[in-house]
Amino acid sequence: MPELPEVEVTARALRQAISGCVFQGFRYSGKRLRHAFPRAALGRLIGTPVLSISRRAKYVLLEFEPGWIAVHLGMSGSMEQVRCRDHALGLHDHVMLEFESVKGESRLLVFNDPRRFGSWQWLDRRRAEKSDLGALLGGASSGLEPFDSRFNGQWMAESARSRRVGIKQWLMSGSVVVGVGNIYACESLFEAGIHPLRKASAISRARYDYLANAVRRILQAAIDSGGSTIQNFAGLDGEAGRYGQKHCVYGREGEPCPRCSRPIRRVIIGQRSTFFCHGCQR
DNA sequence: AAGGTAACCTGACTGC
DNA sequence: TGCAGTCAGGTTACCT
Known about the structure:
The chain is an alpha+beta fold. The protein folds into two domains: 135 residues, MutM-like, N-terminal (N-terminal domain of MutM-like DNA repair proteins, Alpha-Beta Barrel), CATH 3.20.190; 124 residues, Orthogonal Bundle (Helicase, Ruva Protein, domain 3), CATH 1.10.8. It has eight helices and ten strands. The protein is elongated, with a radius of gyration of 20 Å. It binds a DNA duplex through loops.
């Protein structure tokens, strides 16, 4: 479910819900997520306020004085706000956080993740500020944020020198731009008219200008409509995203290309389904 | 160093 | 009805 737009939508909703609230405690299902759950670090945060909520790549960062909780939604994670403190944790509910607002109201968040590819990590401020915050997030470090003004055709063209890998895999690798997953890689390449298997180094500066803009435009449109809704993405309020209706190629194998009407093809690239138009994308 | 592959998990869906 | 097979938004350890 979650690519950058879904993570951004989640971060904004969390900002609405718990900005300035004081952390009161948590419950954890005990089931293994991608990384060991940082119980001890969260325990030390009880009684302290959330300073900010932000997003870096596909991580939501909850900032406290001693550092950040970095939440990754993986393939199937989502956050939901619930009303009742005694809310029974469902089969795939793994974390519940409790906050208190300035007015003394209780705010409860539940992290649900059936496939458990998601993760909760603790980033200590002292260690994080020595290096780059991004470096602690592993692969999310080297690429630029898509809405960073430095992310443009020039950056892409320069980074692509001597890259023999296909453009789609390169886009998704996080080494040039972060947050572009399978759906938005397919959609951006369709928009830019570039074949997903074209070598990154064999794309002109002019086409990279176009691609960088396409990536930004598509991600922004998805954020504006509340996130993609591939199977079950929902905001904190359970409201489903609507972007799925606008996919031009993703999930549309055999359907006519919206531009030239030739059937959309599906191939596997790097173990991921890739949708494209053989007529429009070169 | 770059590039490819398998692995981590569960649920939904398809076809026999 | 049931069971096997396939596929799904992401990352990362480990090969070559």
